[in-house]
Amino acid sequence: MSLRLGDTAPNFKAKTSQGDIDFYEFLGDGWGVLFSHPADYTPVCTTELGKTASLKEEFEKRNVKVAALSVDSVESHKNWIKDINETQDVEVNFPIIADESREIAEAYDMIHPNASLTATVRSLFIIGPDKKIKLIITYPASTGRNFQEILRVIDSLQLTANHSVATPADWKDGEQVVVLPSIKTEDIPAKFPKGFVEVKPYLRLTPQPNK
Which CDD domains did the record assign (predicted)? Predict the structure, then answer.
């Protein structure tokens, strides 16, 4: 069965480019991103892992651990990392999981037979501190991910986990947010002292509460 939002992310033990890990222990009490790649030594993946490495500080300040996965071996991963570091001018600083048995790929439904019987598609999971899946994005093998969108979604998830708000279309950190419909308009001033604008009775905007 495929995983859905709100499901518990399966734990696993695996060999990686940085040694053996237990996934839950690796995540600790923070957030996590787990994302898969069709294979090592592929051009789009090389740029994606390079981009992820270049965003190390952005993930760290959000308390997010990152792990990549493909069905190739640890030895293959380590050699490929040399190419990534060279061509993308980075130092890969996160584990790449070796899933030669495809057990993790199957547990996370990363193999889509209509796309490929053997290779993982570009699945990405954002996992909360409660080990629940908060976001799933799946790209075809031909299309590289937008990592600014991934950071934007993490910002939204972390904000909305702690405040009674939602984020509107194209929202970026620091912009106005939407007050949840469950909050009565008369209760907004006490909960959101920065003020609010009522566009419609069901659409109330307020400055981002944690800024």
Answer: PRX_1cys (cd03016)
Q: Which of 177, 134, 175, 130 is CA-nearest to residue 154?
A: 134
Q: Any idea of the CA torsion for 69, 110, 25, 51, to the nearest 10 degrees?
A: 40
Are 205 and 179 contacting, i.e. CB atoms less than 8 angstroms apart?
yes
pLDDT at residue 24 is higher than 90: yes
Indicate the helix (H) or strand (E) that contains 60. helix 56-61
| Separation CA 159–CA 191 (nearest Å) | 15
Tokens of 124: 């990405």
- Provide the whole-model pTM: 0.92
Active site residue 45: yes
The whole-angstrom separation of Cα 39 and Cα 76 is: 10
The proportion of the chain whose per-residue pLDDT surpasses 90, expressed as a percent, equals 82
DSSP lists the bridge partners of residue 206 as 177
Strands 133-139 and 122-127: antiparallel
For the chain, the maximum distance between any two Cα atoms, rounded to a whole number of angstroms, is: 61
Convert the pLDDT of each residue in 119-146 to its tens digit. Answer: 666 899 999 999 999 999 988 878 899 9
Instruction: Pull the structure tokens for residue 44.
Output: 């789009």
Q: Name the average pLDDT for the chain.
A: 93
